[in-house]
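quick one, 393 residues, struct below
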Amino acid sequence: MELYALTPVEEISRRISKIQSMIVAHGIDAILITDNTNIYYTLGRVISGWVYIPAKGNPIYFVRRPEGLKGDNVCYIHKPELIPAELSSRGYTLPGTLGLELAVTSYLTIERLKAVFPECAIADASKIMREARAVKTDLELKMLRQSGIKHARVYSRIPHIFRPGMTDIELQIEIERISRLEGCLGQFRISGDSMELFMANVLAGDNADSPTPYDFAMGGAGLDPSLPVGADGSIIKPGMSVMVDANGNFTGYMTDMTRVFSYGNISEEATRAHRCSIDICRELKKMGRPGTKASDMYEKAIETVKAAGLERHFMGYTQKAGFIGHGVGIEINELPVIAPRSRDILQENNVLALEPKFVVPGVGAVGIENTYIVTSGGLERITDSPEDIISLE
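---
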């Protein structure tokens, strides 16, 4: 198997060059990558092994599995202790400062790698990789747009699979089925240990207000204490809202989208809150240009919510989320973060999801979520699906 058979070598070179410029800017001599997300970003496929990226020169892919990868910069080894000798044999000077992904790599792995490079000062490469991945290339944007098209196609079929008497989990299973048939990979890649999720989050009625330990905009009790989020088996009844936040990973790059469905009539307050969510997204769509502070976008959303008198319901009722948006890509929680204390500033070709949502007791969750590309003219929406509340009848 040719190493770059899945992603053009020119694309990988662009990504490596970007990372190397950031390595130099941080005063680091090289980084050693172990995390699957970052391996995928730097190679276009996942391997069991390590990716070594020097500040100058070609990366080296140290591979344990799979067998059969071919390329001048492929080196098969069975343990990291062999890396220094292999680097020396290829003419690489061992780094004085080595970057490791301290935020996402286990303590035992970090300690082992420190022992492999005992003379090296260790720096954190996690921020470098997150910032590098935050600005997408043209190929990445193409993959995200493809996910957005398929994501919207799945949502268009939801009213046709609902039947009276369904529970939320029965509806979720049917959504998952059509998603997989559409090509959804089924995987949510999530950075860090603060979130866990299955393929979809379907919230019917007051279950939307059930607090969860995870850092999500909406909650849900879930089906079991081992995964306390999302559908809890509630029967979907007239007067309830049904919020669907389903997996958009069709290409290895994820779009994030939420739409609300109703069974029967829902309250005027819930309808008004949903309209406010749409208004917020449209205001931020115009505002979201390169150079805009993420915190300013959050404040604009809060101003709109307060003007509508809906702050009690915003981003949760019993338990509130402290953000209204986040970057997406290979992982579902990338940079930038749209939050009050965020220091992120929008850059062209950032991709972010905005999700200003509300919980109205007695009805459930309302509001939308879209995925956008940051452009010089504002945000470009790539989840093209109707935004108004959609009837299930």
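Residues 268-287 form the longest helix (20 residues).
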